[in-house]
């Protein structure tokens, strides 16, 4: 069956921070660029980022990219690639300054420079004491950033396809990427976007979990499309549980609250982080704080009638500071916890927040896969950036404010790589394979004709509950194994989802079914990879890999200092080495992590 | 938490199926965990998957789920269920073409936003480091930059209803003043020229519906007033 074809030099899927940053690069280079997004760009989930973006500007005190690099490697529990981490930390000042020049309304210091606040895991002088590195616009940094980048794209005349959902990646016989299929939501019509280069900037998939800070739209579309197109997924067992989601609601409370002086307390009012991280305390890295909170709750020191959360206390801060630096948090407290944070502490609980793994890339944003014994060979024409990609800079645990930095640095570098690649290509596009849209059309056709199938909402809920129970903050050998078989059962239901709504016009039931196809790929990759990794590292902590003298904190560098690659076909796993060699400085040597 | 049944009356229209729009009466059992209207809508959609509305962040920062709730524009994710009178009457945002159910075509709204050149204009060669701005100058942007483009304001404005193609509307004018007020922006007089016309700015008759409905507590009327003042000052 033939479908309409639209031809561009470049296609970007996703209009959050990474996609918009890449689009600026491509549009300003004069290339014909299409940006496809499920939502109007400023509704992408970057908008919800709160606390800031990391850069060693040193506006308030001495700072250095090398210290930032050290913190990031340590935060990653040494699973991050040190070349990519050096690249990101060295580029940080440049991309943040560019953003300021685009018009981003950063808060200011008396000197007129960008305001910076402390954040978890960011320290001066190779781990000595917290440093002010997070560049912030109150507690609305992501909103200010996303709008500034959308505005810059308006200036650059970027062509947007808004409320279009990309369905599948198109690869030709040689495996090169030559486009995507996408559906216009308003009409239900499917198109082929034929391109010389495709960037996935589709964000994370936090909606595989029941309790998540993520938006409804964070369904891992790029990750699912890549998996279906035979691209392996890297390090998917590593998910960040943010320490402070509003208990019950899941809405994010920025770590910037603790950066501004907020304190976590248990039922007896104790500042328990002093016991877990004597130096950094409440500003230890997120995995450490989340585990401490869950331990407090598990040992009966949780708050509330069900003892199922802890309290985040800022009542000792000056109300004027709260109104100036954390106004959005106060609103969230009132809206979603019924608590005014100026007067009462906020009930918080660790909540799924960020996907450290994703589509494997190098620091130029090129998607890389194993081929002929080389673990990282670029797939021609295919790029990924932001949360859907794994460069890997976050390794086993991401530091706060490094996600906004990631999307700026790798949005830009992937954009630059694409410009260079497209200019090196012949004027004519590589031909599309015959029936490039058939697979997508067959998926839609199945949904239109499915009888006696599974309900989308119930199936998604079963997946979310399973992931939450079997693959959460603490992981258990038996539960993981059981979780794998449960998720594989749920996969069978996903293959038979049925929708009642058959309308062509803005059919959101159909969109949710198509999103679930992507979510299930992410869930499988996550739990299969987690089940196989028999060590504890960063955000992945198992009951059968505990603290021993040979393996401090259960980390097993002899056997597990390597990246997981999950292949959809047969749920096969293989591994590739961590790049321990930075670009210009010495390797940051393996060490036990302590805060 | 107590279970209760809530009655809804919801505007439905699927151009693929319906000849004309109608109000659907539907009730749903809520168990008390549904704090916000959006939680209830998600539950309703589980019951009838054809019910169509936009939503994303569910925390009032993406601006997707604006609708007319018991006669007043607002975000479903920030509207408390307990404050709503039964039956809860839901309609699409007024004044814009309906695509389906609670989903409106926002083309005209964004066209007006884009018409004010919503980006920083500064033609000087950018410095090596950040452009400096004092905390006081930065403070001028508070109450302006936080707009989430949900369109609650413009679609509650009678002037926008009458002239959506000519009057920029409160959201667009708030954005215009956001750039005028930014000490880094050099295009103030160009921006004022762009609004110097009987409709674009001056159709605002300070009815202040925009202020009343803004889910972020912003005040477009005040921003519009400031632009009008600047127009007057530059004329004399």
From TrEMBL, chain A:
Annotated segments matching region Disordered: 534-556
Cofactor: FAD
Active site: 286 (proton acceptor)
Keywords, in A-Z order: Cell inner membrane, Cell membrane, Electron transport, FAD, Flavoprotein, Membrane, Oxidoreductase, Transport, Tricarboxylic acid cycle
Gene Ontology biological-process entries: anaerobic respiration; electron transport chain; tricarboxylic acid cycle
Domain Fumarate reductase/succinate dehydrogenase flavoprotein-like C-terminal: 460-595
This enzyme's EC code(s): 1.3.5.1
GO cellular component, as recorded: plasma membrane
Xref: InterPro entries: FAD-dep_OxRdtase_2_FAD-bd (IPR003953), FAD/NAD-bd_sf (IPR036188), FRD_SDH_FAD_BS (IPR003952), Fum_R/Succ_DH_flav-like_C_sf (IPR037099), Fum_Rdtase/Succ_DH_flav-like_C (IPR015939), SdhA/FrdA/AprA (IPR030664), Succ_DH/fumarate_Rdtase_cat_sf (IPR027477), Succ_DH_flav_su_fwd (IPR011281)
Enzyme class: oxidoreductase
Membrane topology: Peripheral membrane protein
Molecular function terms from GO: electron transfer activity; flavin adenine dinucleotide binding; succinate dehydrogenase (quinone) activity
Sites bearing Tele-8alpha-FAD histidine, chain numbering: 45
Cofactor binding annotation: Flavinylated by SdhE, about 5% flavinylation occurs in the absence of SdhE.
Pfam families attached to this UniProt entry: FAD_binding_2, Succ_DH_flav_C
Ranges where the FAD-dependent oxidoreductase 2 FAD-binding domain occurs: 9-404
Annotated metabolic or biological route of this protein: Carbohydrate metabolism; tricarboxylic acid cycle; fumarate from succinate (bacterial route): step 1/1
Positions bound to FAD: 14-19, 37-52, 221, 387, 403-404
PROSITE patterns: FRD_SDH_FAD_BINDING
Localization terms from the record: Cell inner membrane
Catalyses which reaction(s): a quinone + succinate = fumarate + a quinol
Family named by the database record: Belongs to the FAD-dependent oxidoreductase 2 family. FRD/SDH subfamily.
Name of the protein in question: Succinate dehydrogenase flavoprotein subunit
Organism whose genome encodes this protein: Methyloversatilis universalis (strain ATCC BAA-1314 / DSM 25237 / JCM 13912 / CCUG 52030 / FAM5)
Lineage: Bacteria, Pseudomonadati, Pseudomonadota, Betaproteobacteria, Nitrosomonadales
TrEMBL record, chain B:
InterPro entries for this protein: 2Fe-2S_ferredoxin-like_sf, 2Fe-2S_ferredoxin-type, 4Fe4S_Fe-S-bd, 4Fe4S_Fe_S_CS, Beta-grasp_dom_sf, Helical_ferredxn, SDH/FRD_Iron-Sulfur, Succ_DH/fum_Rdtase_Fe-S
Entry GO MF terms: 2 iron, 2 sulfur cluster binding; 3 iron, 4 sulfur cluster binding; 4 iron, 4 sulfur cluster binding; electron transfer activity; metal ion binding; succinate dehydrogenase (quinone) activity
SUPFAM superfamilies (UniProt xref): 2Fe-2S ferredoxin-like, alpha-helical ferredoxin
A single BP term in Gene Ontology: respiratory electron transport chain
Annotated pathway: Carbohydrate metabolism; tricarboxylic acid cycle; fumarate from succinate (bacterial route): step 1/1
EC number: 1.3.5.1
Domain of life: Bacteria
Every 2Fe-2S ferredoxin-type domain range: 4-96
Keywords linked to the UniProt accession: 2Fe-2S, 3Fe-4S, 4Fe-4S, Electron transport, Iron, Iron-sulfur, Metal-binding, Oxidoreductase, Transport, Tricarboxylic acid cycle
Enzyme class name: oxidoreductase
Details of cofactor binding: Binds 1 [3Fe-4S] cluster. Binds 1 [2Fe-2S] cluster.
Catalyzed reactions: a quinone + succinate = fumarate + a quinol
Pfam families named in the record: Fer2_3 (PF13085), Fer4_17 (PF13534)
Record has 4Fe-4S as a keyword: yes
Swiss-Prot/TrEMBL cofactor(s): [3Fe-4S] cluster; [2Fe-2S] cluster; [4Fe-4S] cluster
Domain 4Fe-4S ferredoxin-type: 137-167
Protein family according to the UniProt entry: Belongs to the succinate dehydrogenase/fumarate reductase iron-sulfur protein family.
Name recorded for this polypeptide: Succinate dehydrogenase iron-sulfur subunit
Species for this entry: Methyloversatilis universalis (strain ATCC BAA-1314 / DSM 25237 / JCM 13912 / CCUG 52030 / FAM5)
Lineage of the organism: Bacteria, Pseudomonadati, Pseudomonadota, Betaproteobacteria, Nitrosomonadales
């Amino acid at each position: 069956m033939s479908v309409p074809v639209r031809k561009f030099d470049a296609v970007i899927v996703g209009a959050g921070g990474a996609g918009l940053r890449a689009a600026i690069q491509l549009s300003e280079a004069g290339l014909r660029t299409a940006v496809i997004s499920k939502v109007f760009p400023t509704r992408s989930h970057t908008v919800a980022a709160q606390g800031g973006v990391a850069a060693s500007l040193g506006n308030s005190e001495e700072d250095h990219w090398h210290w930032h690099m050290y913190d990031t490697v340590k935060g990653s529990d040494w699973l991050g690639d040190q070349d990519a981490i050096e690249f990101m930390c060295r580029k940080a000042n440049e991309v943040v300054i560019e953003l300021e020049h685009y018009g981003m309304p950063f808060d200011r210091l008396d000197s007129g420079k960008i305001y910076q606040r402390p954040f978890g895991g960011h320290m001066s002088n190779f781990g000595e004491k917290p440093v002010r590195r997070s560049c912030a616009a109150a507690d609305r940094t992501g909103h200010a950033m996303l709008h500034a980048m959308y505005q810059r794209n308006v200036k650059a005349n970027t062509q947007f396809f808004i409320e279009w959902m990309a369905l599948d990646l198109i690869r030709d016989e040689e495996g090169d990427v030559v486009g995507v299929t996408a559906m216009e939501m308003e009409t239900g019509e499917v198109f082929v976007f034929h391109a010389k280069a495709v960037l996935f900037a589709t964000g994370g998939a936090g909606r595989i979990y029941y309790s998540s800070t993520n938006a409804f739209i964070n369904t891992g579309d790029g990750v699912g499309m890549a998996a279906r197109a035979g691209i392996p997924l890297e390090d998917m067992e590593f998910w960040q549980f943010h320490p402070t989601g509003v208990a019950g609601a899941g809405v994010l409370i920025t770590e910037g609250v603790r950066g501004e002086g907020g304190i976590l307390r248990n039922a007896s009012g104790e500042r328990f982080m002093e016991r877990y991280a004597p130096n950094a305390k409440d500003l230890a890295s997120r995995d450490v704080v989340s585990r401490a909170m869950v331990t407090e709750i598990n040992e009966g020191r949780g708050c509330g009638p069900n003892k199922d959360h802890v309290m985040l206390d800022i009542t000792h801060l000056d109300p004027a500071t709260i109104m100036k630096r954390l106004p959005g948090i106060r609103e969230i407290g009132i809206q979603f916890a019924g608590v005014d944070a100026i007067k009462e502490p906020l009930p918080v609980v660790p909540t799924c927040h960020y996907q450290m793994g994703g589509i494997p890339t190098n620091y130029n944003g090129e998607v890389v896969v194993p081929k002929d014994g080389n673990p990282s060979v670029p797939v021609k024409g295919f790029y990924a950036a932001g949360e859907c990609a794994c460069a890997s800079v976050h390794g086993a645990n991401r530091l706060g404010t490094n996600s906004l930095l990631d999307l700026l640095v790798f949005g830009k570098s992937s954009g630059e790589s694409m410009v260079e690649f497209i200019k090196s290509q012949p004027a004519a596009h590589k031909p599309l394979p015959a029936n490039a849209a058939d697979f997508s059309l067959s998926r839609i056709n199945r949904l239109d004709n499915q009888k006696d199938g599974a309900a989308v909402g119930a199936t998604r809920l079963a997946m979310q509950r399973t992931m939450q129970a079997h693959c959460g903050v603490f992981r258990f050998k038996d539960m993981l194994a059981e979780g794998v078989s449960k998720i594989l059962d749920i996969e069978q239901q996903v293959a038979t989802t049925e929708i009642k709504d058959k309308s062509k016009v803005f059919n959101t039931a159909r969109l949710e079914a198509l999103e679930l196809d992507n979510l299930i790929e992410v869930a499988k990759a996550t739990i299969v990879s987690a089940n196989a990794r028999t060590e504890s590292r960063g955000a992945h902590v198992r009951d059968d890999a505990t603290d021993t003298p040979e393996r401090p904190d259960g980390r097993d560098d002899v056997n597990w200092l390597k990246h997981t690659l999950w292949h959809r076909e047969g749920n096969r796993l293989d591994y590739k080495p961590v790049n321990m060699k930075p670009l210009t400085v010495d390797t940051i040597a393996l060490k036990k992590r302590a805060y | 938490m107590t279970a209760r049944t809530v009655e809804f009356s919801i505007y439905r229209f699927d151009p693929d199926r319906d000849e004309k729009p109608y109000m659907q009466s539907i009730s749903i059992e809520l168990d008390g965990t549904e704090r916000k209207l959006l939680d209830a809508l998600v539950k309703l959609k589980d019951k009838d998957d054809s019910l169509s509305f936009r939503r994303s962040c569910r925390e009032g920062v993406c601006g997707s789920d604006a609708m007319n709730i018991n006669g007043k524009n607002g975000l479903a994710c920030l509207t408390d269920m307990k404050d709503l009178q039964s039956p809860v009457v839901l309609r699409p945002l007024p004044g814009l073409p309906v695509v389906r159910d609670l989903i409106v075509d926002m083309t005209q709204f964004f066209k007006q936003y884009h018409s004010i050149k919503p980006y920083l204009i500064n033609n000087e060669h950018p410095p090596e480091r950040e452009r400096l701005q004092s905390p006081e100058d930065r403070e001028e942007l508070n109450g302006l930059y936080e707009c989430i483009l949900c369109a609650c304001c413009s679609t509650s404005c009678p002037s926008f209803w009458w002239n959506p193609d000519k009057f920029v509307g409160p959201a667009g004018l708030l954005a215009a003043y956001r750039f005028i007020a930014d000490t880094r922006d050099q295009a103030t007089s160009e921006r004022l020229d762009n609004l110097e016309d009987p409709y674009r700015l001056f159709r605002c008759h300070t009815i202040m519906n925009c202020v009343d409905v803004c889910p972020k507590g912003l005040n477009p009327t005040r921003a519009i007033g400031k632009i009008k003042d600047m127009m007057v000052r530059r004329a004399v």
